[in-house]
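Checklist before submission:
- one chain only
- standard amino acids only
- sequence pasted in full

Submission:
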Amino acid sequence: MTLTIYICTRFLRSLSWALLAILFLILLIDGSDQINFMANKNIAIGAGIKNTLLRTPSILIDAMPLVIMLAGLITFLNLARSSELVVIRAAGRSILRILFAPVVLTLLIGILCTTLGNPIVANSLKYSEEFLQNLGLKPRNFMSVTGNEIWLREATDNKQTVIKASQTNFQGRVLFDLTIFEFNGEDILTRRIHADTGRLRAEHWELKNAIVWTLQLDGPIEFDFKIDRKKSLRLKTTISETQILDSFSNPKAINFWKIPSFIEKLENSGFSATRHKIFFLGEISRPLFFLAMLLIGASFALRQARFGQTSILIMLSVGSGFILFSIKRIAESLGAAEEIPLLLATFGPSISGILLATGLLLHFEDG
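Returned file contents:
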């Protein structure tokens, strides 16, 4: 038990130093970038600092796999340099037993990052987006999904258009059972259109079986609206298919605990929720990915204990970690394109990394 506590302490100390180093780099690099960006827009430096602080949790949680790998590497390199690792193994402890405490801590850190860290990141990203929108540096979202309804908003110089639909197709190009409200300015309704379907074409909506209510401002009260029925109607728009698909909330800006209900809303509305499913499963698999990175760092540190060449092995460890990270990103991209199953895309790289690193550890231990 004493040895386990000692190894945990050494690992947490290395984790703290690695975390502080990465945090310093994030604040330095992203902070200077945000300050320069705000300065080019003639905005006070304080705005850049504020947005940097809002963005930091998101960047830091993405960098946590690197932090875990560095912590494992530093811990076991220090144990090897002081010959403590040799003494521990001479006392009959296998490398897997030595790794038990760091493995448990790593899994706990991964679970905490997903269950507690993710909501913090989601809130900070929302505040960052709102902050940039208030500064006029980012357009406001023109689309939302509430319950079983889809809402779109389009604004021009002198007209506001609001579209409500009950469902859409997979690509977001066709809306079903839609109602369009046209406003002159902010609050004066000038026209209401109901159609069975609305297909998005180049710079216009193509409406089928449309009923048009047009407000007659100079008429008597009982005849305020003129009603027309049209089998086909074209309505100009600046909305594109790409804008519709990209307008959904960034998965990172959605609380982990609310993602399942958001996915259900998207699917009920007819949209593809693959991107959000990939993100959700990736959050669940985070502890396993952390574990894979820890084992990679530990395996190279164990090799150093036997063969030396510290600097080369550190570079190999970091390089291996980046290769695994890149493979994970590629797998998620293939999963998002539905080329491979989602579970394979999210859990496959982590499990493969764990198995390969464990095999490497056992190989080095057997000599």
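Reviewer check: The mean pLDDT is 85.
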